[in-house]
Each structure stands twice: as structure tokens, then as C-alpha cells.
User: Fold this.
Amino acid sequence: MADRFAPGDHVRTSRADPPHHTRLPRYARGAVGTVVEPQGRHPLADDRARGLPAEPETVYTVRFAARELFGEGDHAVTVDIWESHLEEVR
Assistant:
């Protein structure tokens, strides 16, 4: 299966706030970043934590401007994010 995103693609993280465990940090929800590189395919930790079957999906390292996440800062922050938590920014 081909990766949905490629290095350099602009993506937005999900804004969802599920009532269960999620590996998407709250501070990164709804933020726009740039894909750095794929990190392979891994079962979605959100589902595994709830005892659900979890099919492997691509995890991406995504770079965010600190300002995008925290409202200030001149540095970048990288976060590894499962594909189902990302959408394309056009």
C-alpha cells in the first residue's frame, strides 16, 4: 500500500477530542504542519489501547512551527502522527 502523504506535503491534524485514548497530542490538534518523512506502518495505538483490532497504517514525522502549536516561539517541533489523524491541506 502506498503512503498517502510524501515529504513536503502540508497536512492538518484532526480536531477531534475523543473520549478514549489517542496518540495525537492535544496541543497539536487542528494544527497545520509539513510532513518530514514516513516512519513505517504500525497498528493504530488508539485502537490497541481499547482492545480493538488495529490494522497497520503509516506513521509520519510532521514538523510544526512552534507558533502554530503554542502561539509563540521561533523553533520547530516534530511529532510522529498516524495517518488517520491527518488530512491534506490544499
The first strand starts at residue 10 and ends at 13. The two ends are 23 Å apart (CA to CA).
